[in-house]
Amino acid sequence: MKRFFKKNLIAGLLILFPVGLTIFVLAFVINLLDRVMAPWISLVIVRWSLPLPEDFYLPGLGFFLVCLFIFAVGLVATNFFGKKLVALGDRILHQTPIVRSVYTTIKKVVDSVSEADTGSFDQVVVVKYPHEGMRMFGLVAGRTRGEVKEHSGEDPINVFVPLIPNVTLGFYLVLPRKDVTPMDISVEEGMKYLMSFGLATGEGKKKPPPEKE
User: How far out from the chain centre does Cα 138 lie?
Assistant: First the structure.
């Protein structure tokens, strides 16, 4: 009876934990945006004399308005006049002391991510790291480009080696293609294998690293 209860309790936790955590994260983001937008919603109600109480609250309204604002900015930024306005704002921020250093750094990161290969982080590999006798799991992070490629020897490839338990942290490596071995598993299966310390295994179709340009 004790084993039966323990088995089903663990099974229930394994099912409900990811669902509960997902709901928690979404609820946190939505509630945060609702609180941030609440003063602006009250201001609009007062200024436009809307037939609503000043402390009007609708769950998810702030989140919806933020998404709508982001969409509107994207819509404006993609037309001719919007592009000119964005370019003007970009020049102003680049010429503003203190703000310039922060803005340019963030802008470079965003531009790098947006221009990256669509195939990035979709292939699990095993790499020789930190020395010849050891192997580590990694994700192909695209082709090596520019000056980094010129100084990295023949046919280099970018690999991100995640750490556990926080797989968002890790090492960014530039390795010779000969030291990168594609795995016969998907990224999801690779992450399960990593997080379970090798207990979870899976099958998949091998996909080679990005071809040399």
Answer: 16
Question: What does pTM read for this prediction?
Answer: 0.52
Q: Is a pLDDT exceeding 70 seen at residue 116? A: no
pLDDT for residue 210: 58
Q: DSSP 3-state helix, strand, coil percentages of the chain (rounded to 5)?
A: 50, 15, 35
Provide, rounded to the nearest whole percent, the portion of the chain with pLDDT above 70.
82
- The residue among 33, 23, 108 whose CA lies nearest residue 70 is 33
3-state secondary structure 132-189: CCCEEEEEEEEECCHHHHHCCCCCEEEEEEECCCCCCCEEEEEEEHHHEEECCCCHHH
* The one-letter amino acid at 177: R
